[in-house]
Design brief:
By secondary structure, the chain is an alpha/beta fold. Helix content is 32%, strand content 29%. Strands 1, 2, 3, 4, 5 and 11 form a six-stranded mixed β-sheet that branches. A hairpin with a 3-residue loop joins strand 3 (59-66) and strand 4 (70-71). The relative contact order is 0.24.
Length: 200
């Protein structure tokens, strides 16, 4: 049902994603538009929708459904609220890791940060650490950034291994999500209808 974006438009587009460096949304953006595309990030899904509605960005990349946790309700609500159009989609395999400051001792961890879906997708792993305080954040990459900024060795984050590289954190545990085939569907949204040449 999606018409896609032609290659010329991909090369010149300005793209916005929710989160920060190392977010899965950034990975989805780079998968669709290519690394080095003209992009920036915002804190919330609403800010991303506003950016394309106002013309500050040509496209927004937003998560809409996860194979484990289901739909991202907030994005569905915003698609109803704003007069924007879904014109393409892309899929990213989600592989969560447990990240901490270098030298973190798992036996001394008290708090874990992640996006609510990140916590949900790692429920099996977290069941083994019921004493950890689970604190939701707006984005998995922001969780990693928070651990870096707090510099508290008892705090850890669930995020991607790419986020560990971005923020100089140590991967304490690899692939901790419950299902190996954990995939998130992202949609490419714009504020005008786009038509590709020779589309049928």
């Amino acid at each position: 049902p999606f018409i896609g974006i032609d290659s010329l438009d991909k090369d010149t587009a300005r793209v916005v994603f929710q989160g920060t460096e190392g977010a899965y949304s950034q990975a989805a953006m780079e998968h669709y538009f290519g690394k080095g595309c003209n992009s920036y990030h915002v804190h919330t899904f609403r800010e991303a929708m506003e950016a394309i509605e106002e013309g500050a960005a040509d496209y927004a990349v937003l998560p809409i459904e996860n194979s484990t946790a289901g739909i991202v309700a907030g994005v569905y609500d915003l698609l109803q609220e704003y007069n924007n159009y879904i014109i393409a989609e892309t899929y990213i395999k989600v592989e969560h890791a447990l990240l901490g400051l270098p030298g973190t001792d798992l036996d001394k961890v008290t708090t874990v940060y992640s996006h609510p879906q990140g916590l949900m997708q790692c429920e099996g792993f977290l069941e083994q650490h019921k004493d950890w305080n689970q604190i939701s954040q707006a984005n998995t990459a922001q969780s990693a950034q928070k651990v870096l900024l707090e510099k508290n060795p008892s705090h850890v984050a669930i995020a991607s291994e790419e986020a560990a590289q971005v923020y100089g954190l140590e991967v304490l545990k690899h692939k901790i999500n419950d299902l190996d085939n954990n995939t998130t569907r992202f949609v490419i949204v714009t504020n005008t209808r786009k038509f590709v040449k020779n589309a049928k």
